[in-house]
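Annex B. Sample input.
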Amino acid sequence: MNVLPPSIAVAIPTYRREAELVNTVNEVLGLSPMPAEILVIDQTPCHEPATQSVLERLAAQGRIRWIREDAPGLTRARNRALMACNCEAVLFLDDDVLLPQIDLVDRHRLLLADSTVKAVSGQVVGKAGGLVSLSHTEIARLGPLIPANVAAIHTKGIPMLRGGHHSVRVADAIRIGGYDERLTGPAFGEDLDFAMRLGGDSILTTSSCTVTHLTAPSGGCRVVGKGVQLSAAERMVPAFAVALRYGRCQPGLRRTWMWIGLRAGVVRRELTRRPWELALALAAVPVALVRARSVAASPPAAKV
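Annex B, continued. Sample output.
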């Protein structure tokens, strides 16, 4: 059943990004039609003067809403956007993307006009380009593990959202308690967790909406603290929690996300050059598992 397309805001969570952030904001300002509002959820303690000047000017002109957050956290930033926006839906974008479709906002609005669609998961292509072609059988088999750059897909029933490019109806996001703020640090799996709670049958996965992800080498909302043992645990907990929460009914998902957690915390190239830090990271695995079990055992406390 079709309803009126919802009003839509674009939200850009950002952390320690400078020129990439300014470029992304300018990309959004160049869309036609424009979103009803643009929210920059900024967790950077102190910007470079050039970035600060641009953000201050755009905020003073009313072209963006510049919302400062003291503590970095991707899920917290997303929830802040849900609470702050004045629209019926939010389109979340990474802070280092290019937008090749000038009508990107309208594409999301029109897809959300279907009352059975609560969220739209768009395509994400790397700066080198390249698309992956999958058959319907392969898509069904992979489910939430399908790559972000799948070509020619337009289907419901996949419980996955592309964190750096998805839109969601605000009321539906609030109804399930928003994004789980216990998935901190790199927040691996936070988009899968949100999608599983929202319900795959209400999510439209489509290649008709696309962005180019530049994958900036530094910064980003996934950056964690400097303490090695704490950092290792923080890196592993989100993926472990997703594996434990949803892996019972999907063994393949459990194995995949446990491995993602280990790769994030232990199997890192920089640790092979510092074996003493590798030992600390390995010691953090049981700590991360205990924390992950606690997170997986209960639903998120409502933050929105």
